[in-house]
Amino acid sequence: MNDGAHPDVVFLHGAWVGPSCWSSFRRHFEARGLRTIAPAWPHDDRPVEALRASPDPALAGVGVKEIVDHYESILRTLPNKPLLVGHSFGGLFVQMLLDRGLGSGGVAIDSAPPRGVMPTPMAVRAGAGVLFSWRGWKRVLRISPESFAWGFTHELDAAAQARAYEEHVIPTPGRPFFQAAFAPLISTTAVRFDNAARAPLFLVAGERDRTVPAAMNRANFAKYQRHAALRDKTDFREFAGRSHWIIAEPGWEEVADASLAWARGRGLLPSASTPGASVSTTA
Fold first, then answer.
1. Which long-range contacts (CB under 8 A, 24 or more apart) does 143-148 make?
2. pLDDT surpasses 60 at 276
3. What is the CA 174 to chain-centroid distance, rounded?
4. Do residues 277 and 257 touch, judged by C-beta distance below 8 A?
5. Which strands make up the sheet holding 105-109, listed edge to edge?
6. How far apart are CA 139 and CA 116, in angstroms?
7. pLDDT in tens, 8-61
8. The dihedral of CA 50, 25, 92, 94: what is its sign?
9. Measured between alpha carbons, how far is residue 69 from residues 8, 63, 74, 95, 187 in Å?
10. CA nearest 90: which of 167, 194, 203?
11. How many angstroms separate the CA atoms of 208 and 126, rounded?
């Protein structure tokens, strides 16, 4: 069912992991008759084991603009506008790509904040390891199993945490973290919260997320709600008991079905061959 030339859905991953984090979501969407792709960040298009063993030195120079431009170059080659689904930094990229007029709509799950959404103390703690790394803005960095467990998978047992780390975690550039942290001073992560031409957006939050706490996603939603033209184009839902690993921890199916139901309700996807669950998008 996967057709890279004519995808219905494009999945965008965040930091510390690659496209494999979307494996379950992609199978779930494809079982419902949809075609999906999950492109890697620039210089990251290799298996997890290879990336972990020898990350490309060029990755050190990759920031938010380079990643979003990379995704834009892919999307502009497609004959149709697909639904964009992103997690963490991928959620920020979804918002930025929609702001550029790309995608039929977007789902931003535990989204990193655009400029204007301030980090909470918990989020600052989650990013401290990168922000206090020596010259971290120009290096390829690694995250320890302990830090990944604290920031991503703390709702899993120890064995599942170790499995998630081994299967998905890769080195990542420090630059995007610094660009997000210093967003008030630069425009790299900016979106237009009053862009009336923007396609519909569904913001999803995890109640127990430490990396991007739900309060930040609510603040992100509120930015759009201030503008009448976007109130009817922006929806929000918070899932109880979910961590930042909301896309792969137990119960991920509910999040996937909510995303599908929202997109189908908005008329953003082809008719379902296998109906998805009907899930409310209210907070």
1. 143/16, 143/169, 143/172, 148/16
2. no
3. 17
4. yes
5. 36-37, 9-12, 83-87, 105-109, 201-206, 234-239
6. 26
7. 999 999 999 999 999 999 999 999 999 999 999 999 999 999 999 999 999 999
8. positive
9. 20, 10, 9, 13, 15
10. 203
11. 13
- Give residue-wise pLDDT tens across range 146-205: 999 999 999 999 999 999 999 999 999 999 999 998 877 778 999 999 999 999 999 999
The 3-class SS string of the chain reads CCCCCCCCEEEECCCCECHHHHHHHHHHHHCCCCCEECCCCCCCCCCHHHHHHCCCHHHHHCCHHHHHHHHHHHHCCCCCCCEEEEECHHHHHHHHHHHCCCCCEEEEECCCCCCCCCCCHHHHHHHHHHHCCCCHHHCEECCCHHHHHHHCCCCCCHHHHHHHHHHHECCEECHHHHHHHCHHHCCCCCCCCCCCCCCCEEEEEECCCCCCCHHHHHHHHHHHHCCHHHHCCEEEEEECCCCCCCCCCCCHHHHHHHHHHHHHHCCCCCCCCCCCCCCCCCC
The pTM for the full model equals 0.93
Exposed/middle/buried for residue 202 (C-beta within 10 Å: 0-12, 13-18, 19+): buried
Amino acid identity, position 121: P
Phi and psi at residue 116, in whole multiples of 5°? 105, -15
Tokens representing 225?
Answer: 């709600």
pLDDT band for position 128 (50/70/90)? confident
